[in-house]
Amino acid sequence: MLKNNIQKALLGGFIGTIVFTIMGQLIAPHIIGFPMNVGKMIAGMIHSPENVGIMIHFVMGTILFPISYLLIGYDRISGPGWLKGLIFLIPIYLVAMLVVVPMAGKGLFFHSLPAAMIALMGHLVYGAIMGSIIGTPNNSQNEVISQN
């Protein structure tokens, strides 16, 4: 069962990261006038080429956040999978806005309510996708396993 959850977590994280990235490129320009490029922002922080920043962005979204969710939020947050994932991403969004974005020289919450809202929307959509794909623990299966 753990292997299945890890596979679903990695898939959910990957699809969520793709959607998050596309939202930053296609939706953000209509609202804030320019694309939000997380990979470029990360690359600037570590003085690396943009493709390195994109790779780090995808590793975090595909592996780090989904595995963290399985370890921390999967069994502890109640509700349907999409809601559990969405709730799990709220603190990650806040860390991004209060620590990572300022470290990138963009200020708290990008110094822009519209940009901060686009980032929030992206994180919530990512969380909902990831949580939907991972699903929820099946209590009846857990009970059967613990009885054996």
Describe this protein with a few key phrases.
globular; mainly alpha; 148 residues
Helix content: over 70%
Biggest sheet, open or closed, and with what strands and sense?
none
**Helix/strand class:** mainly alpha
Output the radius of gyration: 16 Å
| Low-confidence residue ranges | 139-148
Shape: globular
From the N-terminal CA to the C-terminal CA, the straight-line distance is: 15 Å
Order of helices and strands: HHHHHHH
User: Residue-averaged pLDDT, rounded?
Assistant: 91
Question: Which secondary structure elements does this structure contain, and how are they paired or packed?
Answer:
Layout (H helix, E strand, L loop, with lengths): L1 H25 L1 H5 L5 H9 L3 H24 L7 H23 L9 H22 L4 H9 L1
Fold and architecture overview:
The chain crosses the membrane at residues 9-32, 52-74, 86-104, 110-129. This is DUF1440 domain-containing protein. It comes from Photobacterium angustum. This protein is an all-alpha fold. It has one domain (2-137). It has 7 helices and no strands. The chain has helices at residues 2-26, 28-32, 38-46, 50-73, 81-103, 113-134, 139-147. α1 packs antiparallel against α6 (113-134) and α3 packs across α4. It is globular and about 45 Å long. Residues 139-148 have low confidence and may be disordered.
Brief summary:
With 148 residues, the chain is an all-alpha fold. 79% of the residues lie in helices and 0% in strands. Helix 1 crosses helix 4, helix 1 (2-26) packs antiparallel against helix 6 and helix 3 crosses helix 4 (50-73).
